[in-house]
């Protein structure tokens, strides 16, 4: 083989090798299966269930004051407003936030989810941490007094007024500790469960009951006829449940969402939203 022929053959082999590398590289990065229609990732973008969108779940129905008029997309209501603020912190516009619904139990069960975040008054527990992730808390519950519109407690605005009335509470709870400390035990009736306390209120055995604030809103809105949250007992968050966003176990969003919640706490936004939706005169004023 002449020198020229050898050079031509070497050049041909080099071209074939280069073509093979290009082909293999293309195959390695070609979309396959369910990823075939996925949008290409943007550098620095958060990984969400739908590219470019933040999918947030809540319960159905969602009750006031957590969500007003069962419309979380409106941003009206404490949790709707918190979710809106967190989405903004994460860099999502309102148009890029998608709201869906889920049950409470399915949200904290193990397994894949079709949403990125979920909030419907989830308290952080060690047991739940085995199945899902939590952000840092956006609210620590206070203790509240709930009654009916026809009860003598309905018009109470001070702790002193409530001390004169029969009040029910569940034993061995933070609610009991706060009620005993602030209302005294003379007119306090203790029950084995909140259901028993509610039954006592409905039958007129007590004029009001003490529960945590989320439970108070639920009872007033969904259980009691003409239910009313009288107000929050002052300085009652010590030992209260911490409410947080639920995320799928191992979610890449857990740290960014926690950072967003922490930032909103640091700049006073969470306190402002709490006062607007949970501490106002139309929601649950703090009793004097």
TrEMBL record:
Keyword 4Fe-4S applies: no
Keywords on record: Signal
Residue runs in coiled coils: none
Signal sequence interval, chain numbering: 1-28
Claim: Electron transport is one of the keywords in the record: no
SUPFAM superfamilies (UniProt xref): Periplasmic binding protein-like II
Domain Solute-binding protein family 3/N-terminal: 53-281
Ionotropic glutamate receptor C-terminal domain location: 53-280
Superkingdom of this protein's organism: Bacteria
Name of the protein in question: ABC transporter substrate-binding protein
